[in-house]
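Colleagues,

Please find the record for the two-part complex below.
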Amino acid sequence: MRETRFWTWHLLAIPVILVLLGLHFAVQHYAPVFYGVSVEEARSFEAMIARGKDMTQFVLYILLLVAGLYHGLYGLRGIIRELPLSAALARAVDWGVFMVGVVIFLLGAYVTWWTFSF
Amino acid sequence: MATNKPTAYNNRLGIKGWVYAGKYTFERYLYIGHRLSGLGLIAYMTLHIIETANRMRGEQAWAGLMGLFASPLFKVIEYLLFAAAVFHATNGVRLLMVELGFFLGKPEEPVYPYKSSVMKHRPLTYIIMALAALLIILGGSSLFFE
């Protein structure tokens, strides 16, 4: 049941990532195509801060961070756990991946908050 | 006689089992590609979060970093990242459809010669991979030539 729940969250993260990463690519990498501004302008310090101070952007970044990290790290955990591990090692992998996720999330969330409150 | 003690997944090939496709089909290679691109993307995401934290060092540090990313080498890396993301996303949509039971055909009596659900699904696989290739080419043309 627990594993089914983890897998369901893994699947539910897909549409979130598709939409939000698509937007992220459009804004950051394809700004000339979608917004008519150069990539350099879109990535300038002022533009980055202006985007980051927007509440919608702030929420979407956090959502992308959570969905991307969960989806990616759950996938990584699955790959590692395909190896014939002992129960103790499998648990260590679970906790290790979880802790890596927490650390990366905290860093990403802090940077996003820093920008929002700049 | 040696017994093959069952484990949670019983991956007797170990690390080789991660990348060995052997006599399996096109979909198995897509599966390996899906994993490799996924690992690349999660590694990049981690680096990307660390790298964007550079903004906290101020405008000049940020401008220096963005200048580095404007170099031809980073353009190529950015394009590879885009290609990996497009492949992973399109193939992921295909896997999601399989997971939910779409495009696999109705259940049938197993009458010889057997029709595999993989073959029923194969046209969709080709369409999705063609779409991925198109997006990757279009993305490259926008990134390099705009």
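Residues 117-145 of chain B form the longest helix (29 residues).

Comments are welcome before we finalize the supplementary table.
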